[in-house]
Amino acid sequence: MRLFGTNGIRGKVGENLTPDFLSEVGLAIGAYLPQGNNVVVGMDTRVSGEMVKNAVVSGLLASGVNVIDIGLAPTPAIQFYTKNHGDFGIAITASHNPPEFNGVKAIAGDGTELPREEEERIEKIFFSKNWRIVNWRDVGKYQKKEGANEEYIKGILSHVDVEKIRNRKFVVVVDCANGASCFTTPYLLERLGCRVISLNCHSDGTFPGHESEPKEENLQDLISVVGDVSADLGIAHDGDADRAIFVDDRGRFISGDKTLALVAREIVKNKGGKVVTPVSTSLILEKVVKENGGEVVYTKVGAPIVARKMIEVGAVFGGEENGGMIFPEHQYCRDGAMTLAKILEIMAKSGKKLSEMIDALPRYYQKKISVSCSDDKKVKVLESLKEKLKDEKIDTLDGIKIWGENWWILIRPSGTEPIYRIYGEARDKEILDSLIEKYKRALEETIASIS
């Protein structure tokens, strides 16, 4: 049995995320840690955040570990504070999921997301209920700490050329999606000398502005305002701000693949080295990295997997197609605000507009859709689909990736939702649409055939 998905423990509050369940999660993590360890806890802006946090904290304290509560903060800020001040960290967040969801993300002492083998140790304790409940004298200490977001902002500023960015006096429209970036990104931009125009930058866990996933259909206000004020760019975060999606100066939504390739090109051009990314990433990345003397290393989908592989191979950069980028000089986790600062630095140093740099990248078309599939069917569906597609050129590193001439399709189960995701890329848009539809039908037929 599994407790953790691809990005921590997630569920609907009041259904599978109940106070009893959450306190037992805290007890399991507490028993996993040595008594007396310091656990950093922070949360995003969801309405249920305090309930979820306090339930988990009760289990931690009962296990004899100490809690440092840093309050509302983006997930990368929690990871940064954990790296500097804690033995372990917990982010109370469900990232881009709707407001009725919440979750518990476990963070190792070095600020990275906990590797799967360590999650399994916690799961073993959880399912066996092998708690360590201490006596009253040894209950953990609880303290609140301020300043985590400021420390995080200073950390980002230390890794970019602040004066070069300030001299450009960029006009930036920022959409915080009423999430945790409300407390960091607008202030980071001010420190970088930008004129900041804010959308949905007040904290509200019901996400009234739009859904917290930064998809193009959710960012129409951002796209409109960028054009109306002639901004240099627009930036949008997801709910916990570990990702960044951009709108260029021409008001175009820029897919995460393109900004990933843009940043990778500049870093490899200056440093050389390896770039780590999942199998779902565009061929644009491989093309620009190889052209500049670098190497691409592929992994299964999942930011923790990318981060661990980066450490293993000594990569200079890493990231995913969804706008999550990892800068090892800062920390080994996705970081939306660091991504924004780096994009501004690239623009400042090159003297070019974002649209110019994007247009200079190789052109491919990408598409991503999802198909409903209950969690209990996922394994059988994957095995059946492998058999159905065995005569095609496939790669099974993570799900099933089908290769063709100038195109690929990736079919893989989500680790956080009851769905399969289908990713696709091709040089021709009509061919891509046709391929997506073809493999969607194949997937739906397979799901329907599994009882």
Automatic annotation (TrEMBL):
InterPro entries attached to this UniProt entry: A-D-PHexomutase_a/b/a-I (IPR005844), A-D-PHexomutase_a/b/a-I/II/III (IPR016055), A-D-PHexomutase_a/b/a-II (IPR005845), A-D-PHexomutase_a/b/a-III (IPR005846), A-D-PHexomutase_C (IPR005843), A-D-PHexomutase_C_sf (IPR036900), A-D-PHexomutase_CS (IPR016066), Alpha-D-phosphohexomutase_SF (IPR005841)
Alphabetically ordered keywords of this record: Isomerase, Magnesium, Metal-binding, Phosphoprotein
KW Zinc (keyword) present: no
Signal peptide (residue range): none
The enzyme's E.C. designation: 5.4.2.10
Pfam family, one: PGM_PMM_III
Positions of the Alpha-D-phosphohexomutase C-terminal domain: 371-437
PANTHER family recorded: PHOSPHOMANNOMUTASE
Name of the protein in question: Phosphoglucosamine mutase
Organism: Candidatus Aciduliprofundum boonei
Lineage, opening ranks: Archaea, Methanobacteriati, Thermoplasmatota, DHVE2 group, Candidatus Aciduliprofundum
